[in-house]
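Here is one chain, start to finish.
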Amino acid sequence: MPEPPLQETLARRVILEPLFGYIIAEPNREFDVIVTVNEDYRGGRSAAREAVYRLLDRKPPELAGYSPTHSYVFARLTGERVLDLGRRDADARVKKSRADGLGLTHAVEDDPGLHAVYKISEDHEVNCCVTRTLTTIKADAAHRAFRALGEGICWAVLDTGIDRNHP
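Its structure:
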């Protein structure tokens, strides 16, 4: 079986599963996607977002419920458009070079600062699952013994890093 073109291989690297499989099965279906921009792009994240807009030939309309961010582009695209975005970004990652004295050309992956897309994933609903956590932290005992269900309690974890010199 012949190897796919390098642009296809590189596009495949940035379009995550299971989205890639869904696109292959239904290329004309529309998908809500999250394009994570490459933080190492020359000019930074804002420039990478603008490059993604150019690759899409437009700034996608803002999806309901999302605020603009420098790290992500949220869009509703057909599977074909997602593949095209991956291919077009791959073109920016590839350069043609000549082998020494042989006159052969081959493609090589270029500087990561040249490609705007880090990854493309499906934007899908996620749910939390804390049933095991209750047992792990022994909260199930408090549930049973005291009917302490945690109602009306708000909590947060503020992690500011690790002080390795702290005793």
